[in-house]
From TrEMBL:
This is IS3 family transposase. It comes from the Bacteria. GO terms for biological process: DNA integration. The lineage of its organism: Bacteria, Pseudomonadati, Pseudomonadota, Alphaproteobacteria, Hyphomicrobiales.
Amino acid sequence: YIERFYNPQRRHSTLGYMSPVEFEEKAMLA
């Protein structure tokens, strides 16, 4: 999850190709 901070414009496969916002929302629910 840390990688998104280094590559904010890249949708990484580990994020399920979600946008940063979608990832943040799911991360807060996790």
